[in-house]
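Homework-ish question, so no full write-ups if that breaks the rules, but can someone show me the predicted structure for this set?
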Amino acid sequence: MGCDVVTVSTDTEFVHLAWKRCEKELERVNYPMAADPTGNVSRMFGVYDEKTGLALRGTFMIDPEGTLLCTEVNFYNLGRNIDELLRKFKANLYMKRKTNEVCPSKWKDEGDKTLVNPGAKMVGKVHEALEEALQGA
Amino acid sequence: MTDVPTIVRLGQKVPLFELTTYDPTKDEFGRFSMAQQMERRRWTVLFFYPADFTFV
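A: Not a homework solution, just the prediction itself:
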């Protein structure tokens, strides 16, 4: 998709290796599994749980300039929805190319309606702008 | 706690951190470097989870 996925937990790289080798569910995993046993990088992103020494389910998207553009953090007991994550990733990649457009909540993929040059004129007229974009799409 | 780290926020540059990795495609240990990602002009998705051998 044009971005490098790296998974991170506070386990060591040795545990990652052992887990990858024995868990059949991970057969298709082909991204690097990073080790953060000190929790320093987990702390950097605000997902380190001091009580347990574990990292919460955080997903972060960083652009090629190193700017953090997307954050989503779930507690232990809630899994991530890959469709929503992919939507956000695609939107960020799209907006990098089309810097005068913004992706509204219903935007799913390239070709869906966006708002172009949002500014003073659009204030109070978002409904009309979305209608217009829909007709143009 | 003596050393309170700053948490990176949306729109900010992330610190140039490095991490040791296990790379399943090579079955080798490796290194993830934020600086290298920027040099190579790559997008990065970090995917944190609590622990190996659990139900991710």
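Now go work out the reasoning yourself. Hint: Residues 100-137 of chain A form one domain.
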